Amino acid sequence: MFAGSIKSFYLRYGFLLILTTLIVLNYVTKSVNLFSYDVFGYYLYLPKFVHDWNLNFTDLEWVTKINDTYHNTPTLYQFSWIDNQHWIIRYSSGMALLYLPFFLIGHLIAYLLNYPMDGFSTPYQWMIFIESILVTCIGFILLQKTLRNYFEKSIVQLTLVCIFFGTNMMVHSGMYNLNVMSHNYLFMLYALLLFLSEQYLKTGRQKYWYSAIACSALMTLVRPVEIISLCIPVFWGMDSLNAVRKRLAGFCVNERRQSLLSFFILMAFGSIQFIYWKIETGHWIINSYDNPGEGLDLLSPHLADYLFSFRKGWMLYTPLVMVCCIGFWYLYKNQRTIFFPVIFVFLSSLYLTASWSVWWYSSSFSSRAAIPAYSYLCFPLAALLTAIQTTGGIKKWQSLFFSGLIPILIVFNLFQTWQFHKGIIDPERMTKAAYLKNFLALKRAPETEGLLIKLRSETGVESFVPAPYFQHRIIGMEDMEFGNDESLVNTPVFEGKHAQRVSPSGFSKAIWIPFNAVTTHDYAYLRISAHVFIPSGADTITKANLCAEMQYHGKTYFWRSLNFEKLNLPRDQWQYVEFIYLTPEVRSREDIFKTYFWNRSDHSIYIDDIKLETFY
């Protein structure tokens, strides 16, 4: 049997093996700066409040100085501009609360050892580094305790080993400081929630119930969609849909005091975010994710891509998850009291996670958004392992099949993890061609770069040399020859009978075109050009932009421009200008591309022949 064949070390010391691997990998792959990219946004609440005793970002001068010193992020995408007058941190404050205890320890050490007390110097880095390792360890300890209520010790140890080494859990809790991100902390919080729910079921003590509600509230403050976690304490121990209905009815009729106090706890945590928004913007509730290029597409989830795409398919890169899903059947048969909350949270989380328009969730191995799910996927996996080990629990051929398959999948995952570490598997841009070209490869194939998804510049500056294989078309032209707009003039004119006079703080005519008319591919280079006439007497520095943007439902994202302040254009003569715009990964192929001229100066500027060309 599978369990019996490796029962000695792995089953008795599984947690020790995980712990040792976790510490070694984190230390070996530790980066210079933990507070980068998204983590920079999670964390900013703490150093900003300590620095100024407020969270007001009238401008981003302080943040820019920190970024210039520590090089946290190439762009300050962590902020949103609300009502054209308020900068706020895009991310909710839950992670800052979780970082707070070790941030304070780091702050004290920085004071005692005379380090910069700016929140980013060495003591802070090490404290959050240590905290994130402890968070993972606590998560596994709590899971071990909860699983022991339902499964044998050997099964529990084996389950934890499989989850850690057989999925992307090892990467996102043990490598490159990815455990500092929200996903690893949510894994621990789900483990805590399961533990508290089990304790409440066993003892009936109210302190466990309210602690579980507080845990769910904190998870929601970290990531709002985790409100679904409430289903775990509410439905834990329910063995049928009828029991679930009775439990809900009880909350409404017999346990109203408990329900009201639970609601108060949820609102107490939520008010932390609401008060921040109210103080900084005047609104109790806002959408801080103000980039229309990403968001929840609840009516068109990307389930197939999220699960099976070669780019980042969760079940393609971590196929052990499919085995966990098979285990739901055995969980239903043998541990029905925990089946309903686990399956409901799993399916709800899967749907919501796959509904995010940027379903690949940036750089990661497999899906980093799936990390919290491993806490409750331990249960169906343990149920399957129990069936394999139990006489009569599963057919013999099925037992042999899974006994051989699970070790193979773990080894396969470890190999692909190594490929990811060596750059053979790209963290964000994989395609079917690139994956198959490097399948089981020990060295990245030389032609891989040309097979990957097009690399976009993080700063928006693109270099472009038309390749011979590119298709080239002129897809838009605004020559100012049509219309009765008063801004159309007959002098000065570059070509034809008219040009457009663009008044101060004004905009030219625009070219609009849907993305599906720009290209049939997933990207295109767009060359945007125009002829510009700046009259004498204008400001020495011309404040104007030739702009390009993508729009989703009329809202702009991925705005780029040619800034005339960086050009030294002569006066009283027509000048040709152009720039290259590489299209983003559009939210939908019906999104609209728009290009136009924006005059920000105090004098009129003339423009003619705005032209749009596509190369793909």
Helix content: 40-55%
Ranges where pLDDT stays below 50 over 5 or more residues in a row are 1-6
Determine the strand fraction and express it as a percent band: 5-15%
- How does the major sheet shape up? 6 strands, antiparallel
Short description:
With 616 residues, the chain is α+β, with helices and mostly antiparallel strands.
Structure description:
The protein is an alpha+beta fold and 616 residues long. 48% of the residues lie in helices and 13% in strands. It is built from 24 helices and 13 strands. It has helices at residues 2-5, 9-12, 14-28, 38-43, 45-52, 61-70, 94-112, 122-147, 153-165, 169-174, 182-203, 206-222, 231-235, 241-253, 256-281, 303-308, 314-317, 320-334, 336-355, 374-389, 396-421, 432-437, 448-451, 515-518, and strands at 79-82, 86-89, 472-478, 488-489, 499-502, 506-507, 511-514, 525-533, 544-552, 555-563, 574-582, 592-599, 605-615. The strands form three sheets. Strands 3, 4, 5, 8, 11 and 13 form a six-stranded antiparallel sheet that branches. Strands 6, 7, 9, 10 and 12 form a five-stranded antiparallel sheet that branches. Strands 1-2 form a two-stranded antiparallel sheet. β1 and β2 (86-89) form a beta hairpin. α3 packs antiparallel against α8 (122-147), α12 (206-222) packs parallel to α15 (256-281) and α18 runs antiparallel to α19. The longest helix has 26 residues, at 122-147. It is globular, with a radius of gyration of 28 Å. The relative contact order is 0.09.
